[in-house]
Design brief:
elongated; 14 helices; Glutamine Phosphoribosylpyrophosphate, subunit 1, domain 1; six-stranded antiparallel sheet; alpha+beta; 2 domains
Amino acid sequence: MAGIIGVYAFDKIWNISKFLYYGLIGLQNRGYSYSGMSILKENFQLITNEGAPEDIELPQNIEGWAGIGYTGTKIGYPIITDFGTLVVDGIIKGDLNEIAKGLYKDPENTLKEINGVFSLIFLTKDGKMMGYRDSYGIKPLEIGGFGFDLAILSSETSGITVIGGEFRREIKPGEAVFIDTYEISYSQINENRHNYCAIDLVYQSRIDSFVFSKNIYEVRVKIGEQLAEEKKIDADVVIGVPDTAIPFAIGYSKKSGIPYDLGFTRTGSPIRTMLASDDFLKIIGVQLKLNPIKYVVKGKRVILIDDSMVTGRTLKNTVFALRSLGAKEVHVLIGSPKLISKCPYGMEVPEEKDLIAANLSEEEIAKVIGADSIYWLSLEGLYKVLGKSICVGCMTRNYPKVI
């Protein structure tokens, strides 16, 4: 998983380095094991970091009027070639140096021939920028601006709005955008097959973002309401795992009439346990991210909502923590269908042998995590909220045949 961003000033008097840096921080929810930036002035300046964007040390004298950036779970720093610099979110077939050469010399025909599941941003050596999404659109790409001075490409709109920019629109599947000093133009290169990633909508994206032209907060509130329609539970309070699942809990509360309350407080910077690189960090991440508030749960029948369930370790520790603070009952609801298969397109879903829902029954899972009951959103319920133009391969084992 990755977040990519491009910032382009129409006047070369601008220094966009800080805009790029803070925009990249706005995308680190998409992965933060590796990050990097490439900034153009007279030549490209490359800065890389083994860690989150917020840990990048910007040189005091760095300047440039255009640049691109990357943050992700795998090494994917901007690649500098003889023709420009390139960042990719997803899986792309072919040699990236040759692809950069093609994008520079004949972009439209090159984009017609590239195979994969990806979004990309390319900044040429002579200062032109382009963005593109493959025709299935599994990976997002949005465009916005900072007044009339800057154009901003970003995996999700948080990378645009955190630097004061305004979201304009989604780059459509199969569409390219071309940016130079004088204009922004669009071209539908390949067919729009729109198979948006369901996990991006229910888990990956920030709740203040628009992705795939959808308001993430609104989507998750509606999923919570759908959960309330599907699974009625006699309980005293509804809480959500921060930050992604809080809108689910709010939606469930609105529909069911069961009060919502803030169930957890956080210590330090957020750690996304699904993205953590080792088991120790996952355990510590749970404690830092999910420190329960005793007043909210003691003596109560608690509905605990999370966005997804992968191995079950996080929820097991969370349920234990709630019970240790006096929760009378803990009923777990999941705001997505069961994850039963690995994603071949770059989303961090583990092998099937590690996915708890692929290997145990619901009764067994409830027992393993210590919950009184557990329920997953139905596939039909997900379709009701999101429509059917989504990739749900990790939930059904049926994938779009795109590679």
